[in-house]
Amino acid sequence: MFTVFKTILGRDLTLAMRRKTDILTTFFFFVIVISIFPLGVGFDKAMLQKMAPGIAWIAALLASMIALERLFASDYEDGTLEQMLLSHQPLIIIVLAKVFAHWLLTGLPLVLIAPLAGLQYHLSGDEVGIMMLTLLLGTPILSLLGAIGAALTLGLRGGGVLISVLILPLYVPILIYGAGAVSTSMEAGSNVQAYLLLLGAFLILALFFTPWATAAALRIASE
Amino acid sequence: MKINWFKYSAPSNFYPVIGKLIPFFMFFAIVLSIGGLYWGFFQTPDVLSDQKQYYRIIFIHVPAAWMSMWLYAVMVGWAVIGLIFNTRLSYMMAAAIAPTGAMFTFLSLWTGAFWGKTSWGTYWDWDPRMTSELMLLFVYIGYMALQSAIDDTRRADQAAAILSLVGLVMLPIIYFSINCPNPAECSSLHQGSSTQQIETNILWAMLVMTIAFWAYAFAVIFMRVRNIILQRERHTKWLQNLTGVKA
Amino acid sequence: MILKIQNLSCRRGDRLLFENLDFQIQSGELLFIEGHNGCGKTTLLKTLVTLRRPDAGVVLWDKQSIFKLADEYRQNLVWLGHYNGLKGDLTALENLRIASVLNGIDASEEALWDALKTIGLYGFEDLPTTVLSQGQKRRAALSYLLLTKAPLWILDEPFSALDVRAVDMLQAIIAGHVEQGGMVILTTHQEVPLTSGQVKRLKLAA
Q1: Chain A residue nearest residue C49, CA to CA
Q2: Backbone dihedral region of A172: left (phi > 0), alpha (psi from -120 to 50 degrees) or beta?
Q3: How many domains does chain A have?
Q4: Do the Cβ atoms of C74 and C48 come closer than 8 Å?
Q5: Domain C1-76+151-206 class?
Q6: Least enclosed by CB within 10 Å: which of A197, B232, C108, C160?
Q7: Is the CB of C87 less than 8 angstroms away from the CB of A89?
Q8: How does pLDDT run across B205-220, given as a tens digit for each residue?
Q9: B128 CA to chain A: closest CA distance, Å?
Q10: Beta bridge partners of C16
Q11: How confident is the prediction for chain B on average, in pLDDT?
């Protein structure tokens, strides 16, 4: 079982390395969105500080969603998804490996670039730390939940827009607690631990339950 | 008398039966709405004061909000039955419920906005209930969008069923998170519904309106499900015999 | 080992493709599925490999439903569909290695190279499959047949895009598998000469 996980993970990482533009596009999408926001809302320092958590998180939501469209699409088009569905290895492990690879390629870079957003929005070191921590806990949930949407919309015309309609409402809790933790950390004497614990709990729940839904959706899509 | 329920899981048997039921439900929907609204608008006391007649929108607003949630639960119920027993009619029911559910969700938001404008001075506030009702509307829209985006009916039915199930799990979490954006302060939750404190007259009028909405929902959903049957079963013999049209 | 189909009905969209289909296939048999385009050949094959659920009827593998057996049934199965199931950015060798792992075959590097050599991809093992010709891609996909020990092969138009020599070779591979007690179900317009074993035909009428 672990061999399968490792093989699929390695496969998706190799594929991404041979076609780097896909990863870089998501990465720069995130950077560009957070960079143009101040141009629209103004450069007032206090306001930017206040808006930073929400903007960073919404940019992360959108970036993760854009990347999700390709999660299963190319495997669906060339028939390798059929081969995965028919392997007698547990489909859930395969799904987890693919989602993990996807997160390593699109979620983790967002966590690492978060300090840049901190600079642009005048956040303190501690606040940047909290933001990175929430993104570290939250972006895997986005990938796990989003995988359901990606599987449901596989091979459909305009699948990308459809994913956003299906999945964005479901991202609401992650957005509230992810951005909420950073906002709270700006107040003196605040306690962000509760937010982080809750995000952690969501992550565990998502790890256990979403792969089932994704696997079921993949089987339906390949009929 | 013993009724064989499975007999009615075949579209060919279900179609004529609900055709006969639609007029009854329509009749009850109209009579009860007129009765309920008359009762609510003219026969209930002015609980607050003469200037605050606007509270009477409650007779549409609250039943609509209830319906939006119940219909979602019923829709998921049919979707799950479809996933388990692979019965086509269950999926058709689920698909027929979604637009009515979305309509009630929209109605409760719309009436809520007007109520909000008169009592709070604003059409929209990011109140937990309003926000989660808005999310419910988005989930309904997602369900219908997915259903209509897939050409193959079976895949459309099953995919939408999965989505509705995921929505069912997520909606309480969404409600909880909007209700309690700061987890450190979550011990004091939003005040519960206060049906006990309401004047019984008002409560009864609301209940009559709820039954009227149910009757309306049954009538419209049955009409819609008959349309879906007509479309999906157009190649079958029983339907061609019934309508005399060859597809 | 017997694969038994009883009362099978499938619909595509709102249209009934076939109904009340009955047949069976056992060790040492080759089954051709025939019929014109759009009569449901591929739908039938997809049902037999558990990719698609039938609208009515059952498919039994040794008296148990293949959908209940699920992974246990899939162990016995090889499926080659319209698509080759190759990643264009990976080499033939990498593709074959992944296919082996997915199906729990513990193939050595040597065995992988040998399979590709036998199938006629000598010298092309290390190229991304996207630069290969259609016929070579098909060969790369078929190379997996040389590694697998699964008894039941279900192949959808396996001869398409192959040149004469490759067709001969695939015929020999299929015949060899049937002679060793395997079973093959395929759709094709190509005849497969067998020295032993039984050939069955199933005609789907729309």
Answers
A1: A86
A2: alpha
A3: 1
A4: no
A5: alpha beta
A6: C108
A7: no
A8: 889 999 999 999 999 9
A9: 12
A10: C11
A11: 85
